[in-house]
Amino acid sequence: MKSLSIFSFIFALLSVIMGATVRITGSGLGCPDWPLCHGRLIPPADFYAWIEWLHRFTVLFSTVFVSILCIKGFLFNRKLVFLLPVTLIVVQIFLGALTVITEIHPIIAVLHTVVAVLYLGIIAHLGSGFVFAKKSPLDSEENLMLRLSLAGILFSVITGSVVARSGSSYASDEIPLVTLFAFGSDLVYFQLIQAIHRIIAYLTFILLLVLSYKLIRKSDLKLFGILISFVATFQICLGLLNIYTGFTDLVRVGHIIVAFIIASTLSSLFTITEQ
Ligand code: HEM
Fold first, then answer.
1. Is 69 exposed, middle or buried (0-12, 13-18, 19+ CB in 10 A)?
2. Which of 105, 131, 157 marks a domain boundary?
3. Is there a single domain that holds both residue 167 and residue 126?
4. Ligand 1 centroid to 64 CA: how many Å?
5. Residue 201 in contact with ligand 1 by CB distance below 6 A
């Protein structure tokens, strides 16, 4: 089960990385049909078709590994939670097809990103039980910090995806905060969407720093504490760099991937400290 959990997580993360690359490179319609690509199993020599195809390819592998993990996990533990990733795969494939059919409708695209972070989080949560040894339990305050941080990351992902899909990315080039225009100006609503994302992100960052400070003081959770404080700081820097660099592809893809890595790390922490 250990190697199956690791492969499931790696391919699920790869499918998210390819998904982010599809979005950033504008390859969402690289394959205008589904499930074939330009009527073929292997796409023609076209950059956008290959990016979209590689996304589908990593999704296929992650689906196979995760389905085996869930069936074995369910037979092993008899816990219904093991059926959740398979359910999310079905929802995600349906949303993926709808994204093509609706030519990337913003609401479908936001839902697709949100289900992706839930999917990766639950795989990290379930797989960690087979990969890592149990660590010392968290006290009630640390537990609260962990749950609030998880909620904060989820809302940062939702609001970030709304920023990207609503065309609010360019609404303000100020950092670290957004100065809102007067209400009634066309831009103020886009600015507000971005301001909400940043405020939720900064509050989540503070939570993550407090949580990692508490973890660093525990000998068997020190590494988790250092990792969380490092990736959280890096994510804030990527958000600021997004604005500062005018949205280079690498920073945009990095910003999405690090958000998913934070969510997975917190989900794993949840499992290994659960008693
Ligand atoms: C905990 C910290 C943060 C998390 C988890 C986070 C997460 C995300 C996610 C998941 C997206 C959506 C990407 C997509 O669907 O394409 C996003 C977009 C965005 N975020 Fe953040 N973010 C954080 C902090 C910040 C900060 C501090 C800033 C700015 C100062 C920022 C600015 C943006 C912008 C401008 C976008 C739109 C990017 C685009 O159009 O590609 N974020 N964020």
1. buried
2. 131
3. no
4. 30
5. yes
